[in-house]
Write a structure and sequence with these properties.
Elements: H1 4-19, E1 22-27, H2 33-48, E2 52-56, E3 84-88, H3 100-103, E4 109-113, E5 124-127, H4 134-146, H5 154-167, H6 178-187, H7 194-203, H8 207-217, E6 221-223, E7 228-233, H9 235-241, H10 253-256, E8 263-269, E9 275-282, H11 288-293, E10 298-299, E11 303-309, H12 312-326
Parallel strand pairs: 1-2, 1-3, 3-4, 4-5, 7-8
Antiparallel strand pairs: 6-7, 8-9, 9-11, 10-11
The structure holds manganese (II) ion (MN).
Manganese (II) ion (MN) binds near residues 34, 133, 134 and 167.
């Protein structure tokens, strides 16, 4: 349900965006389709409104998302100061990585997000934890402005649709509501190839990623009567298949989708020795964000993540215990 707090925040966001002339927009580290889609859509909408805006992200946009409209504009500032900073899809300031200093440099800030663990770090916080994606919220926000002054065009619609599709697993996750479909249906009235968006971001897989998938899935380990499944991406797997960390995206769902599995965990070697990136996916019976928060991470009920340091077997055992405790 939409509360008064959220309606007020929506109004404040509209006023802040219309009142600003120099805006910096921030996507989270290791950007995904939702943070990119919402940030790029906002950027383009602001340009359509005649404003100046820059895009920031600690990381370069991955090849997989490089064809999103405006993706090349990241980290090429055209302004040296801002009157408004906007974080898109960031649950806390840490998600801004090294860009946090720029975020904190402006007199006004907005935090537009759907993570239930969001810690409301900005001056105005537009947080709908029941939304499928930040793009769903961004559409509602831009629609309010668009009614008075056009700021949604075909490209903006395609960007928002991309974020909704990627963050909802093609409208299959439990974060999908009637409103998600209302937003999608309004977006589909614009002129872009929605089937091509789904093909590119949900279905297509490079041959190298296919080889990585085969290697890692055949070494999956299962615990607690098959309710917990764990996969491990090693640096050797990446080297032998000519892939990298970004190619792990989505492969964990192959484990989560197995009948009987309630928690799927993917442990990925980072380039730093004994440092691991962990993704957790759960069925509705288990809270993934509760498991991740045991280790200082966060996320959603069915998808969360954290980072752990140590020897692989110790890291795996700690995660396994946290999973069992939450079963
Ligand atoms: Mn998101």
């Amino acid at each position: 349900m939409t509360t008064m707090r959220e309606i007020n925040a929506m109004d404040k966001c509209v006023k802040a965006l219309l009142g600003a002339s120099k805006v910096a927009i921030f996507s989270h580290i290791n950007p995904d389709g939702d943070t990119l889609g919402s940030s790029l859509a906002l950027h383009r909408a602001l340009v359509l409104l005649g404003k100046q805006a820059d895009l920031y992200c600690e990381n370069e946009v991955k090849e997989f998302y490089a064809s999103m409209s405006g993706a090349r504009l990241y980290n090429k500032p055209t302004l040296d100061c801002y009157d408004l900073c906007v974080a898109c899809d960031c649950g806390d300031l840490g998600r801004l990585g090294a860009c946090v200093d720029v975020f904190l440099s402006a007199p006004h800030s907005l935090n537009i997000d759907h993570h239930k663990t969001n810690d409301r770090f900005a001056k105005v916080n537009l947080i709908f934890s029941q939304a499928s994606s930040t793009c769903e919220i961004m559409f509602d926000l831009l629609k309010l402005i668009d009614e008075k002054q056009r700021c949604i065009d075909d490209e903006v619609a395609k960007l928002l649709y991309t974020g909704i599709v990627t963050d909802s697993g093609g409208f299959t996750y439990s974060n999908v509501s009637a409103h998600t479909h209302v937003v999608a249906s309004q977006l589909l009235k614009y002129d872009f190839d929605a089937a091509a968006v789904c093909e590119k971001y949900l279905k297509s897989i490079s041959f190298n990623k296919f080889n990585l998938k085969v290697r890692v899935l055949q070494n999956a380990r299962f615990f607690e009567d098959g309710t917990i499944g764990i996969i491990h991406f090693t640096q050797e797997d990446f080297a032998l298949t000519n892939t990298s960390e970004e190619d792990t995206d989505g492969l964990i769902n192959n484990i989560r989708n197995i009948d009987g599995v309630q928690v799927a965990v993917a442990i990925t070697d980072t380039s730093v020795d004994n440092s691991f990136k962990v993704s957790i996916r759960t069925t509705d019976k288990v809270d993934a964000s509760a498991i991740a928060s045991t280790f200082g991470g966060g996320g959603h009920k069915n998808a969360a993540g954290c980072r752990l340091n140590g020897f692989y077997e110790d890291v795996k055992d700690k995660l396994l215990k946290a999973c069992k405790d939450n079963l």
